[in-house]
Amino acid sequence: SYSKVSGDSWISVSSSGTVSGTAPSSVGTSSVTIRATGTGGSADRTFYIPVDGPAPSWNTASALSDVNVSTYYSTQLSATNATSYEKLSGGSNDSWISVSSSGLVTGTAPSSPASVSFTVRASGNGKISDRTFSLSVVQPAPSWNTGTTLPSGQQNVAYSTTVSASNTTSYSKLSGDSWIAVSSSGVVSGTPTASGTATVSIRATGPTGLTADRTFSILVESAPVPVWTTTSPLPSVVVGSAYNTSVSATNTQTYSKLSGGTNSIVTGKL
Fold first, then answer.
1. Mean pLDDT to the nearest integer, 122-149
2. What confidence score (pLDDT) does residue 137 get?
3. Could you count the other beta carbons within 10 Å of the beta carbon of residue 212?
4. Which of 13, 210, 220, 251 lies in disulfide reach of 206, CB 3.0 to 4.6 Å?
């Protein structure tokens, strides 16, 4: 038969020699002294049991969130029972990534889209656990800088303004008033023929084909009423002589004669 002589309290020894129990929560070395008893007497021996901690177990999934081109990136890795982390070699497009001993991943993404992979080793309790992580460096979608209300225009007066969106290589008109044109560089132009509120929907397209649409409004004010700058009477003329003079009014495109006296003679520039 066998019996426990001394040792850690969690250790039990059955008469058949089975050593059992639930290991403590701390890492270390436990011991137990066991007596073997036979017909000729007994013999004692002390045994040592190393109590190891569990290997690190990763909590962070292998697929990390994407990062925009030329953008600073930071994320925290986590593994249970890990006391330190290190980046291993052999990744893909990962030269810009650093991993601190506490598991913090940092770096500034490159200026071009790329698929990135890198492997990190978590160490703890004398054991290791490796995991390969992946992320994508992506070109962000266009983002509009110009608000939805464009500068006002005036009826029958040429109009021009420029819209702007970040991460954009070209602009195009989707719909809107017929007098409005949109250039690939974002210039909105045309001559409004009526007063009121005009609208135009514009698509901003990025270098990878991602798009962002926005509808803009333009308040078109009525054309101003002509105001005479030439006063009456006009310069005099000698009877029987040719007459020639000019009249002027602001906000005017054309002039026409409506009526005149019996002695009216209109020639030249009227």
1. 95
2. 96
3. 17
4. 210
d(CA 34, CA 47): 8
Phi, psi of 153 (to 5 degrees): -125, 180
Residue 154 structure tokens: 């005036």
Cα 210 to Cα 31, 167, 168, 201: the distances in Å are 67, 9, 9, 17
Tokens 């420029």 -> residue: 162
Per-residue model confidence as pLDDT tens digits over 28-51? 899 999 999 999 999 999 999 998
Q: Is 161:149 a contact under the CB 8 Å cutoff?
A: no
* CA 236 to each of CA 83, 224, 244, 265: distance values in angstroms, whole numbers, following the listed order: 106, 31, 10, 12
Helix (H, G, I), strand (E, B) or coil at 174: strand
Per the confidence metrics, is the pTM higher than 0.85?
no
Residue with tokens 């990136």, as numbered in its chain:
73
For residue 52, the model assigns a pLDDT of 86
**Residue type for position 116:** V
pLDDT at 198: 97
CA–CA separation, 270 and 267 (whole Å): 7
CB atoms within 10 A of CB 120: 23
Cβ atoms of 122 and 133 closer than 8 Å: no
Closest CA to 52 of 24, 76, 79, 31: 24
State residue 82's pLDDT score.
96
Pairing relationship of beta strands 84-92 and 114-124 according to DSSP bridges: antiparallel
- pLDDT tens track for 151-175: 999 999 999 999 999 999 999 999 9
Q: What is the dihedral of CA 101, 106, 112, 114, to 10 degrees?
A: 50
Spatial separation of the C-alpha atoms in residues 165 and 139, rounded to whole Å: 14
pLDDT score of 28: 86
